[in-house]
């Protein structure tokens, strides 16, 4: 459940509820923890449902949900549905929030609630969606009943790169070498990971390395990976220095990326840092301005976070403005997974400025909320405004939006239409894909008959809400929409959502770890257990 509540829960007309501008202001204010502590919906979880392979994580598993090609008719999307029934958002594949929360809990402390984003918890886990046959997205949907509400999972999936079939890459690493990076698990971890990555890249790829502390230095100009020995020596030379001038590092990094820019390849800057700027421009605005400018010229950004003291807010903002994503690594195993297994296969871009819209059927839906995506909300008209930024999606990436939906009495048939829109990374041409969701797509009981991957997503999202909203001073503030009555915008859970205690959620996720044979799911159960003692 990759929460969409941060997104626009629809365009809300002014009336007895808050006006549109006020609603979006709330959604984009990360300091106000959104999303409800609906954690307990998970308490009813059961073992793996029949008919699905026990190993939900292996390559033989049948994809979860139904993926449908096609495009939702524009008249249905924009004419038949009142604007308050439209939920529109920019896609997001970040996982840094989960990685940092994991680090905090393993260190014996709870994460700062301001760093907890439910959709990034969900992004960390395999979803099992079907892939499209070509470029673009496959759109899947499933869900089920939990108490008096339905949990709806909308899944968007791109095709993986197969057989090494990806374009070449120009990668410019901007490495934080300030004094704070001397802590174990920061620069030492990054250097080991970079050495491993260089050994996995193609000879036709190219790499440049910039280091920064109080100033920025070009350690290695753009160099073909065929000259691996020179790149390895450059990595070995990285050592910690003084203060942290992030702006200087990013400026020089983009300058080198621009100098080595090649048409027809993936041009990307990779920032590796603890995100704690203390020299030069220490606020985000001037740095974000530079990142946004370069993103518009075809150079995307990946932010890799490290360290127990981590500047989460700045790193996430940089990724959002740089048409990229943010991840966090805390140990050698996670670093290897990112730099050796994931990055070489996902370095290119499948879709730019990707956005989605869920149009709920006003005849069937009474109340709904999107879980997560607090700062990714868009106005309904932004879906087809290609000047409005969306998300950058790579090969094999999945995006999940989880909704809590309260239906009208006797609801049946058509439930919602999903549309995803993106721009081709080469031509810039816009394309769309969509599908229709019916009430029949949802199982009678989420926890008895829902797929294991669906239940893992729900559990991960509700655990995130527990960490964020159960903290003193961070009560449940997730906005939900009751369009059938005004519409009204309210705070908290959708009426009828159940609340479970954390021990029951742990029991259910432990069972899911056995059902999926997935080490990440087993680890989630362990992290939940740790959360009960800190």
List the SSEs and their pairings:
Elements: H1 20-27, H2 74-80, E1 86-90, H3 96-106, H4 118-123, E2 138-146, E3 149-157, E4 169-176, H5 187-200, E5 206-212, E6 216-224, H6 228-236, H7 246-259, E7 266-273, H8 284-295, E8 299-305, H9 312-321, E9 325-328, H10 332-346, E10 351-360, E11 365-370, E12 391-393, E13 398-407, E14 414-423, E15 430-438, H11 446-449, H12 452-469, E16 479-482, E17 488-491, H13 502-516, H14 519-531
Parallel strand pairs: 4-5, 4-7, 7-8, 8-9
Antiparallel strand pairs: 1-10, 2-3, 3-13, 5-6, 10-12, 10-14, 11-13, 14-15, 16-17
Helix pairs in contact: 5-6, 5-10, 7-8, 8-9, 12-13, 12-14, 13-14
How would you characterize this protein structure?
The longest helix is centred in the C-terminal third of the chain and has 18 residues, at 452-469. With 534 residues, the protein is of the alpha+beta class. It contains 14 helices and 17 strands. Helices cover 29% and strands 23% of the residues. It has helices at 20-27, 74-80, 96-106, 118-123, 187-200, 228-236, 246-259, 284-295, 312-321, 332-346, 446-449, 452-469, 502-516, 519-531; strands at 86-90, 138-146, 149-157, 169-176, 206-212, 216-224, 266-273, 299-305, 325-328, 351-360, 365-370, 391-393, 398-407, 414-423, 430-438, 479-482, 488-491. Strand 14 and strand 15 form a beta hairpin. Helix 5 (187-200) packs parallel to helix 10 and helix 13 (502-516) runs antiparallel to helix 14. Strands 6-5-4-7-8-9 form a 6-stranded mixed sheet, sandwiched between helices. Strands 1, 10, 12, 14 and 15 form a 5-stranded antiparallel sheet that branches. Strands 2-3-13-11 form a 4-stranded antiparallel sheet.
């Amino acid at each position: 459940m990759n929460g969409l509540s941060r997104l626009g829960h629809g365009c809300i007309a002014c009336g007895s509820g808050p006006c549109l501008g006020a609603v979006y202001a709330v959604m984009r204010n990360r300091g106000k923890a959104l999303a409800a502590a609906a954690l307990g919906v998970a308490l009813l979880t059961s073992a793996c449902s029949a008919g699905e392979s026990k190993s939900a994580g292996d390559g033989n598993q049948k994809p979860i949900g139904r993926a449908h090609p096609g495009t939702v008719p524009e008249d249905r999307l924009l004419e038949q549905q009142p604007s308050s029934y439209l939920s529109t958002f920019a896609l997001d594949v970040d996982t840094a929030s989960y990685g940092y929360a994991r680090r905090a809990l393993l260190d014996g402390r709870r994460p700062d609630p301001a760093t907890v984003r439910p959709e990034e918890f969900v992004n960390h886990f395999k979803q099992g969606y079907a892939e499209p046959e070509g470029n673009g997205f496959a759109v899947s949907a499933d869900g089920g009943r939990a108490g008096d509400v339905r949990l709806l999972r909308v899944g968007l999936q791109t095709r993986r790169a197969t057989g090494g079939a990806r374009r070449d890459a120009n990668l410019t690493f901007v490495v934080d070498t300030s004094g704070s990076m001397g802590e174990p698990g920061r620069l030492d971890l990054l250097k080991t990971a970079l050495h491993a990555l260089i050994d996995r890249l193609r000879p036709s790829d190219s790499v440049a390395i910039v280091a920064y502390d109080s100033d920025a230095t070009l350690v290695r100009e753009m160099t073909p990976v065929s000259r691996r020995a020179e790149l390895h020596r450059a990595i070995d030379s990285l050592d910690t220095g003084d203060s942290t001038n992030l702006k200087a590092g990013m400026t020089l990094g983009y300058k080198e990326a621009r100098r080595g820019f090649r048409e027809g390849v993936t041009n990307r800057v990779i920032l590796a840092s603890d995100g704690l700027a203390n020299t030069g421009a220490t606020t985000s605005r001037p740095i974000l301005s530079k990142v946004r400018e370069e993103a518009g010229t075809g150079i995307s950004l990946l932010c890799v976070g490290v360290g127990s003291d981590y500047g989460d807010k700045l790193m996430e903002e940089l990724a959002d403005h740089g048409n990229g994503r943010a991840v966090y690594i805390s140990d050698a195993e996670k670093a290897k997974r990112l730099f050796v297994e994931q990055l070489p296969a996902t370095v290119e871009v499948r879709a730019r400025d990707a956005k989605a819209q869920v149009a709920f059927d006003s005849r069937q839906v009474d109340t709904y909320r999107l879980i997560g995506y607090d700062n990714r909300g868009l106005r309904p008209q932004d879906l087809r405004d290609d000047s409005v930024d969306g998300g950058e999606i790579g090969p094999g990436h999945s995006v999940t939006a989880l909704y809590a939906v309260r239906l009208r009495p006797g609801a049946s048939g058509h439930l919602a239409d999903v549309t995803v829109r993106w721009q081709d990374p080469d031509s810039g041409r816009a394309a769309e894909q969509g599908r229709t969701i019916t009430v029949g797509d949802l199982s009678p009981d989420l926890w008895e008959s829902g797929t294991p991957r669906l239940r893992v997503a729900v559990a991960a999202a509700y655990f995130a809400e527990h960490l964020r909203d159960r903290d003193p001073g961070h009560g449940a503030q997730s906005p939900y929409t009751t369009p059938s009555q005004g519409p009204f915008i309210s705070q908290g859970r959708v009426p009828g959502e159940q609340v479970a205690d954390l021990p029951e959620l742990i029991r259910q996720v432990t069972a899911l770890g056995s059902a999926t044979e997935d080490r990440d799911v087993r680890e989630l159960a362990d992290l939940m257990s740790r959360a009960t003692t800190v």
